[in-house]
Structures are given as structure tokens and as C-alpha cells.
Specification:
Layout (H helix, E strand, L loop, with lengths): L14 E6 L2 E2 L5 E2 L17 H11 L15 H14 L6 E6 L12 E4 L2 E8 L1 H10 L5 E3 L5 E4 L6 E6 L1 H9 L5 E3 L14
Antiparallel strand pairs: 1-9, 1-10, 2-3, 4-6, 4-7, 5-6, 7-8, 8-9
């Protein structure tokens, strides 16, 4: 599936990037995707963790498989997103989120849900801090949209990365922060592979 298909139509005119969530080794240290690449190689927007890992094992046999991020944020990624998004979005804004009902909080029959590729998602409005807190504690919502249309993200279940749409200044800030591992997406070409399942 094309990466852009995880972003709503209202955000399609924004710049797209893919944020790679670190895996974790047995000591809980973050493991960046680029650390699996051979010298001189660059991470691509359609990178598949499973393919990178298999190629890495050819030269590093016996290396222990790290833990998949499964939509969780390590503290460094969480801090970077909190700072950058906090500086570019209205501090009081409630972001529209959708979380898969299989791991969302209990909800009433009156709660709003919708389907995306055959899966049901619960709609909630959350502040940035609440979204980041969920990501550190457990998992970020699969879909987040700014009501002012300056920012959105979308991803698959148990994600190892996020597809982000961002207004130009926010896009630059995300790209320039060394705490984040991001690559620009070419909307008609780049896909979001099935996530690394650890």
C-alpha cells in the first residue's frame, strides 16, 4: 500500500515523510534502522525492517533479534515530537485520533468508530501530551490529524514507523532534528511495508 494512503485527503497537499521508530536491544537501548545498513548506504522511505535485518544477519550471524517498537515511543523520540509539534501546533488544540478498537480504551456504544481497510477504529480527540504519553506507555494512535490541517500521521497496526504529513516549517523541523530518523516520501512511489514483528 502506498504510504500516502495512510494520510487523509485533506492533508495530501502537505509534504510527506516517514518517521522510523527505533527497535530496542535486550538492554532496552534504542536501535536505529540506519545502524543495520552497510557503510555508505542510506535509508529509503520504503525501507522494510525485515529485509534490512535479514541483510544485516548475513554479515553479523547470530545477532539477537531486537524488540519491535509496536507503536511505542522511546523517550528521545517522544521528547523530540513533544518539542517540535508543541512549537508548531496550537497549544490548546485537540487532535483528532483513531485507534484500533483491539487495543483502545473501553468505549460506549455511542462512541464514533470508522473502518480503514476492514479494521474498526475508535475516534477520540486528544491533546498532544496525551498522545505522547500513550506512545511512551504503550502505543500511539494509528491516526492523528490536526483540525487546522497543518499536520497528520497515519500508520498500520503495531507500527514500526509513522507516515507524517506536515506543513513546510514543521516538515523542516522534523527533518532537521537529529533525535529523529526520518526520510522524505515520494508520494506516487513509496510504500509502507508490513511492520517488523520482533
Amino acid at each position: 500500500m502506498l504510504a500516502r494512503d495512510y494520510i487523509g485527503d485533506k492533508f495530501r497537499s502537505l509534504h510527506l515523510l516517514r518517521l522510523f521508530l527505533p527497535a530496542h536491544d535486550r538492554s532496552e537501548a534504542p536501535l536505529r534502522w540506519s545502524s543495520l545498513l552497510p557503510p555508505g548506504a542510506e535509508l529509503e522511505a520504503s525501507a522494510d525492517w525485515n529485509e534490512l535485518w535479514c541483510a544485516f544477519l548475513v554479515d553479523h550471524p547470530g545477532t539477537e533479534l531486537p524488540d519491535a517498537p509496536l507503536g511505542g515511543l522511546d523517550r528521545e523520540t517522544a521528547a523530540a515530537l513533544r518539542e517540535i509539534l508543541g512549537a508548531h501546533l496550537d497549544a490548546e488544540v485537540q487532535l483528532h485520533t483513531r485507534s484500533w478498537i483491539g487495543h483502545s480504551r473501553p468505549f460506549t456504544p455511542q462512541a464514533l468508530t470508522s473502518l480503514f481497510h476492514g479494521r474498526e477504529y475508535l475516534h477520540e480527540d486528544l491533546g498532544l501530551e496525551g498522545i505522547i504519553f500513550r506512545g511512551v506507555r504503550d502505543q500511539v494512535p494509528e491516526f492523528v490529524e490536526d483540525p487546522h490541517h497543518a499536520f497528520a500521521w497515519g500508520t498500520c497496526l503495531y507500527p514500526d514507523s509513522l507516515v507524517i504529513a506536515a506543513a513546510p516549517a514543521l516538515f523542516r523541523a522534523l527533518h532537521q532534528d537529529p533525535r529523529l530518523e526520518v526520510v522524505s516520501i515520494v508520494s506516487h512511489r513509496d510504500i509502507l511495508p508490513a511492520p517488523f514483528d520482533g
